[in-house]
Amino acid sequence: MVGTATAALRARQAFSVVNGGQDLCPNSAPQSNAGSECGGIEFTREDVEALLNEKVKTKNKFNYKERCENMMEYIKRLRLCLRWFQEVEAGYVSEHERLTISLEIAERRLAEIEVSSLNKEEELSSIIVELRKNLSSVQEKLAKEQADKMAAVDSLVKEREGRLSSEKSQASLSEELARAQLELSSANQRIASVNDMYKRLQEYNTSLQQYNCKLQSDLNTASENLKRVEKEKATVVENLSHLRGQHSSLQEQFTSVKASHEEASKQKEVLANEVQCLRGDLQQVRDERDKNREQVEALTVEVVKYKEYTGRSIAELDNLTLKSNDLEARCLNQSEQIRTLQDKLLIAETKLQEYGISSVETQAECQEQRKLIGDLQSRLADAEFKVIEGEKLRKKLHNTILELKGNIRVFCRVRPLLPEESSAEGKSTSYPTSMEALGRGIDLVQNGQKHSFMFDKVFMPEASQEEVFVEISQLVQSALDGYKVCIFAYGQTGSGKTYTMMGKPGIPEEKGLIPRCLEQIFQTKQSLLSQGWKYDMQVSMLEIYNETIRDLLPSNRSNNDVARIENGSASKQYTIKHDANGNTHVSDLTVVDVCSMREVSYLLNHAAHSRSVGRTQMNEQSSRSHFVFTMRISGVNESTEQQVQGVLNLIDLAGSERLSKSGSTGDRLKETQAINKSLSSLSDVIFALAKKEDHIPFRNSKLTYLLQPCLGGDSKTLMFANISPDPSSSGESLCSLRFAARVNACEIGVPRRHMGTRSFESRLSYG
Predict the structure, then answer these.
(1) Where do the Kinesin motor domain residues begin and end (predicted)?
(2) Separation CA 359–CA 120 (nearest Å)
(3) d(Cα 565, Cα 556) in Å, to the nearest integer?
């Protein structure tokens, strides 16, 4: 059998991981409050492997009572093993929670220490940066002020030197001025004396002029006298003879007059020369006076300029003195500030050293905490791995019990709220967090009343398509192992059934279960080639619309296509037939041989475009029919000549809806009535199976008649109950959950693996 050895190996590995590579001993399992339920019995790995590999043996294979008793005893032991494993798992989970809590506490402490140390470091670094900035700015200011002070001192020294030089020059100028004033006074005195002399000379000149005038007048009188004398001479000459005696006396008089005249001329010339000399001296004195006046005026101007310059220099010297005093005061203040800042810097450096020491201690503590966290994380990872492996083993044991019981597995999936749906009324669904109900329970509130349900798995709105598929991947694998597998989605319209089964086309992350299942089948087919397995696969797709079967695959494919299509026609009547081996046939249905995922994707897209879809008030694209995808798998192992035959049925049921909400009329009304009728027939079948009635009404609708092998045969069946979280749909959600609970309680028989050597039929059947 394919997978038998692998399953046993996985079970041994799982218990090896759970027990840390050793067999479980009485002291190896954690303490549990539910230990009394197992009656103190503990299981080793060999016990569990023996229990899983145990085959029920009977003396007479037709003695069904003995077989049932043995099977019930086997189921009781499995339940006992499962309860013991749940106790072990609860112990590991509690240890996992304790480790998680201690890890969180250590991480919080570490985070707080790191945050506080970072805050302290940032605060100190900011203080140091600020102090350094202040110190640099103060040093710059101090350097600038010192430069200004030195410049002011230099200018002050220069001003002092200038002041001294100006004072010296002023003293020399004062001395020169005094000398000039003395010279001026002496010059003035000389000028005064010269003026007096000039006045005297003028007076003397006037007297000389008067004397000259007198001499002139005397000369004139003398000339007149001479003329008169000459006349008289003439008269005398005439009378010379007469007057020869008198001539000598007159000659003497004339000679004396002439001598006096010459003496007067000589005196006149001497006086004229003296006047000329006096005039030259006077002009020289005047020139000296003018020069002295000009020198006095120039010296006066220079004295005024020196006085003004000295006044300005004194004012500037006073200003510079004031500035120097201010600069000295500022320098003193800045020196005090620098000393205070240096003190603060020293204090900050000491604090920094202290904080550095505390930081080193904190880092050491952080390293210890990190080591502790690393140890806790490793222990947590080990515990999580053990929990995961234990959960896998629990699921395997649970699935084994369900398969032995023959129950239909039910998964519940709640879709997210749509943007147009209001959450003002509050949430209608919640999920319990207890150990038994975690991931399996759902609570629904309607009209203030709480309804609780438990299923094999519950997917919350945040669950992705990948997470949903992981839970059913092993069930899909069973189809390759020779089992009949049926997965169908049930729920009201707009609850997400088609999204769960088909997904959104064009978005790889949101592919539905059907394309993911097919991808897994083709990947597994390829991986099993190395083990000698070869598989042939056939696909068909149909819909049940208004209690009428419609073929969704095209019937006019060319010879170049890889897939082979059997006779199909859109106008043909399709009938459902069951044979004695439990196989179901649909007559005249198009069947296609497929070899790759691309071919199946093409067929799925064609079927999706051919399916009946309509718009209602509850859903813009509401599926108006039941969609059935079927893949028949035939596998042959060439080395062992072992053959398996499996069937995979993936069904997207139409959604139930109320006419008051959907607002359907005309054709939509007929579609709604047909959908509700078929779903009601499905509910009747489930009720009959739950009550184990002798007659099961499979023939009441074509849907239930088509699903008869899945609901009442040896098939592995799983139902997805899709729920809307909208509070206004709580009534329909409650009906869906109740129906899902009844389906989960139904026992349809133990799944059987189909093996044999007979050839695979070309006609597709719905097992």
Answers:
(1) 407-746
(2) 9
(3) 8
Neighbours of 58 (CB within 10 A): 14
Residue 497 assigned to a binding site: yes
342 is in an annotated binding site: no
Q: Is 439 marked as binding a ligand?
A: no
Strands 449-454 and 457-459: unpaired
Percent of the chain with pLDDT over 90: 13
Please report the sign of the dihedral spanned by the C-alpha atoms of residue 724, residue 729, residue 734, residue 736. Answer: negative
Contact 330, 148 (CB under 8 A): no
> pLDDT > 70: what percent of the chain?
80
Write out the two tokens for 691: 């009550």
Indicate the pTM of the whole model.
Answer: 0.50
Ranges of each domain in the chain: 406-555+574-745
pLDDT digits 0-9 by tens, 283-311: 887 787 788 778 778 878 877 777 777 77
Residues 6+ apart with CB under 8 A from 223: none
Please tell me the distance from the alpha carbon of residue 176 to that of residue 180, in angstroms, as a whole number.
Answer: 6
Candidates 688, 682, 663, 673; CA nearest to 735 is 682
C-alpha distances in Å from residue 3, one per residue of 472, 478, 481, 722, 767: 17, 9, 7, 32, 21
User: Is 406 assigned a ligand-binding role in the annotation?
Assistant: no
In this structure, CATH architecture of domain 406-555+574-745: 3-Layer(aba) Sandwich (3.40)
Is residue 418 helix, strand or coil?
Answer: coil
Closest CA to 706 of 602, 571, 589, 563: 589
**Each residue of 246-269: pLDDT tens digit?**
556 656 776 777 777 778 778 778
Q: 496: annotated binding-site residue? A: yes
Beta strands (DSSP E) in 503-583 are 533-545, 548-551, 576-578
Question: In this structure, are residues 486 and 707 in contact, taking their beta carbons and an 8 Å threshold?
Answer: yes
Q: List Cα–Cα distances, 344 to 142, 336, 352, 354, in angstroms.
A: 18, 12, 12, 15
Q: Determine how β-strand 409-414 pairs with β-strand 716-723.
A: parallel
* DSSP string for 741-752: HHHHH-B-----
16 labelled as ligand-binding? no
- 451 by Cβ neighbours in 10 Å (0-12 / 13-18 / 19+) ranks as middle
Q: What share of the chain is helix, strand, coil (3-state, %, to 5)?
A: 65, 15, 25
Strand pairing class (576-578; 622-623): unpaired
Q: Give the bridge partners for 672, in sequence order.
A: none
Asked if residues 541 and 603 have their Cβ atoms less than 8 Å apart, the reply is yes
Q: How far is CA 755 from the centre of its chain?
A: 59
Is 245 assigned a ligand-binding role in the annotation?
Answer: no
Q: How far apart are the first and last CA of the chain?
A: 20
Task: Report the alpha-carbon distance of residue 606 to residue 624 in Å, rounded.
Answer: 17
Beta bridge partners of 541: 629
Q: Residue 291 contacts by C-beta under 8 Å, 6 or more apart in sequence?
A: none
Joined together, the tokens standing for residue 237 give 């000459």
Distance CA 262, CA 644 (A): 190
| Least confident residue range of 199-203, 273-277, 424-428, 552-556 | 424-428
- In DSSP notation, 334-371 reads HHHHHHHHHHHHHHHHHHHHHHHHHHHHHHHHHHHHHH
* Alpha-carbon dihedral sign for residues 60, 61, 62, 64: positive
Is 491 marked as a binding-site residue?
yes
